[in-house]
Write a structure and sequence with these properties.
It is built from 18 helices and 4 strands. The chain has 333 residues and is mainly alpha-helical. Helix 10 crosses helix 11 and helix 11 crosses helix 16.
Amino acid sequence: MKKLLFICLLLLLFVSCSKTVYYKKKLNVDCKNLEPQKVEILEYNKALFAIDTADFEAGIQAIRPQFSALLGDTLEADEIAYLKDFVTDTFVMRINELVEESFPNSEVVSEKVKGVYQHLKYYYPELTMPATYTYVSGIDFNNGSVMIATEAVMISLDFYLNNKGLVYDKVGMPRYVSRRCQPAALTKDLAEAIYYSYIFTDIKAKNVLKEMIDRGKKYYFIEAMDPTLNDSILLGYSSQQMEWAQDNEWNIWATIVGNNMLYANGFEQYRVLFNDGPFTAAFSENAPARLGDFIGLQIVRWFMTNNDETLQQLMEQTDYQEIFQKSHYKPRR
């Protein structure tokens, strides 16, 4: 009897683990021979801060043609004055020094970007990304870490400094946000920007289930663009918070279902499940925020494991009830 029980437990563990392994196998595609084989990173940050401020106008005009996607076709006097004030600001200068220390050359960034672009080419061969630029934003909260325009992908390297010199503390960034500002998150942010620029379709009428699956689809797309991302980077959790979410997945799901939250569309349900913050007080001070994101990702992973669907088909699927039903989602107790 003990031997039979042990075998049953092993089989249960194998089935649970095989689900994870299977969806990962689907994502581990071979795209190394696809374009681009090399990504040139246009380092606007280096060019801008290398200008001799004694004759700044001549310097900025000299680099403008190379960086016209960022600077435009002409520069007005007030724009030049703003840029000079920016590069001579002592705090911005310190940020740029930290960027230089963390990214002394473009090779690390180039390799990260290349991997994402090659995965994108595998799934969406018709998409070609514009030129890729790096810059220093002065930790600009309004624009975020990666922006995509018609002619440029712009990566703000000062969002990947691991809080060196406590720079994020100095600009008032909460610690639960600044811990995400690490080099490992660059591919995640790039893939997320691609998702919202080219893939995402907004569905206006929503409830908790739709919102969870919407977010799950986004995270699954990001994971497809960089399958090496671990879940804590993907979801923006600390390792301890990630462990809590994984250990309590069944309890989270039971709370959502047991409190009739699944098809609700009220403010309180959205606040508890999707608001960002240091933790989710309704569950525990050890629980991360955005637990709806976590559950949504698990539902989508189960759906992709249990169905013969491509990434493109998943992204185009707008019947969220069908995704949920076909996922056969049932977290382990």
